[in-house]
Write a structure and sequence with these properties.
The chain has 368 residues and is an alpha/beta fold. It has helices at 3-6, 9-12, 23-30, 51-60, 73-83, 96-107, 123-130, 147-153, 176-185, 209-213, 242-251, 259-269, 272-296, 316-325, 349-367; strands spanning 38-39, 90-93, 113-117, 134-138, 158-164, 191-195, 218-223, 236-239, 299-300, 307-311, 328-329, 331-332, 341-345. The chain binds pyridoxal-5'-phosphate.
């Protein structure tokens, strides 16, 4: 008997999460030197990691024979102090992705509906289906979440609503006022997960702490994978009401965050110089890419995050292959219902130039 025959039906139907291709793999496939390959496919920080975080990580390596602090005391305390909430309101996780899965552990079972945008980050859908829940996907006119449509999709069976702001892969965001109004409109039987993976790149991110303080069922998630440059260490967190934090902590596996990750994250929080530098690099890179694309006559979607959606129509897959052959990895997003687009992470000035140059060469033959 095949082991797959023994598995739950929902597991066999799961959509596959398609990560950006690793540099080494593309180098092997295309016969390139890995040092020549530019990866703009996973919204990582092109400046690398916070130097202070790296130093703390190196230091923490000496104690890796010990289990980590299961409560992540120091990191939890620092996050709580920074956010002005109680320690009890913080939940640490192996990346913010883990929080989405834990929320589904808590609230999703057959018959339960989970509301999300049609082009929203795909983890919510996978985690919902894993628990035999029903993802209810609402239209996103102009690739922006539509709060009215999401509210209209809420029924008595809804238990969770996910809103990534800015969203991946569209990069689009709702204004702070719209988010607050939406969160306040949700009925009491619904838990609202507000995903802030890219909030540090925004000039005016929404602040849902007043709603949490009122006791509303709001779970905000953040990550160290993006602006802090610690994607490889897998660490993120949620802040929420004490009740929901207790429940999330009850369903997380023991020692879900490692000691090196906790130490690095703690140090990264204080590295404001690196965060500022990363934000500036991203702003300049967004402008550079926007201008470069406009010069090539290629449309892009205005993004508030560290990537941008590039519209290439029916040629998008072919263009992705051409870019890859030239050593530039970008992300096709057909699995998000966006077959006409490629998602390109913002790189350094040199990496963006490489992308724009390669794109020009790939597009050229049919233009001539
Ligand atoms: C919108 C959004 N949320 C959450 C995540 C998850 O990040 P992590 O699990 O690395 O914290 C990502 C990663 O790409 C994302 O794009």
């Amino acid at each position: 008997m095949q082991s797959s025959e023994l598995m739950r039906a929902s597991v066999k139907r799961l959509p596959v999460y398609q990560p950006g291709k690793p540099i080494e793999l593309v180098a092997r496939e295309c016969g390139l030197d890995p040092r020549e390959v530019v990866k703009l496919a996973s919204n990582e920080n092109p400046l690398g990691s916070s130097p202070r975080a790296l130093e703390a990580a190196r230091h923490a390596l000496a104690d890796t024979w010990l289990y980590p602090d299961n409560a992540g005391y120091f990191l939890t305390r620092a996050l709580a102090a920074r956010l002005g909430v109680a320690d009890r309101q913080i939940v640490l996780a192996a990346g913010s992705n883990e929080i989405f899965y834990r929320l589904c552990d808590l609230f999703v079972e057959p018959g339960v509906e989970v509301v999300m945008g049609a082009h929203a980050f795909i983890s919510y859908k996978i985690a919902t289906l894993l628990h035999d829940g029903r993802p209810v996907e609402t239209a996103m006119p102009d690739l922006v979440h539509d709060p009215a449509a999401m509210l209209a999709a809420v029924t008595d069976r809804t238990r969770l609503v996910f809103l990534p702001n800015p969203n991946n892969p569209t990069g689009t965001a709702l204004g702070a006022g719209e988010v607050l109004e939406f969160a306040r409109s949700l009925p009491d039987h619904v838990v609202f997960c507000y995903d802030e993976a890219y909030a540090e790149y925004q000039s005016r991110p929404a602040d849902l702490r007043p709603l949490i303080a009122e006791g509303r069922k709001v779970v905000c998630t953040r990550t160290f994978s993006k602006i802090y440059g610690l994607a490889g260490l897998r660490i993120g967190y949620a802040y929420t009401t004490p009740d929901l934090a207790d429940a999330l902590n009850a369903v997380r596996p023991p020692f879900n965050t490692g000691s090196v990750a906790q130490a690095a994250a703690l140090a990264a929080l204080d590295d404001t110089a690196f965060v500022d530098q990363s934000r500036h690099c991203n702003m300049a890179g967004q402008l550079q890419i926007e201008k470069g694309l406009a010069a090539l006559g290629v449309e892009s979607v205005r993004s508030e995050a560290n990537f941008t959606l590039v519209r290439l129509g029916s040629r998008s897959e072919e263009v992705a292959r051409g870019l890859q052959a030239a050593g530039v990895i970008v992300r096709p997003v057909a699995n998000y219902g966006l077959p006409d687009y490629l998602r390109v992470s913002v790189g350094t000035e040199a990496q963006n130039r490489r992308f724009l140059g390669a794109l020009e060469s790939v597009l050229q033959p049919s233009r001539a």
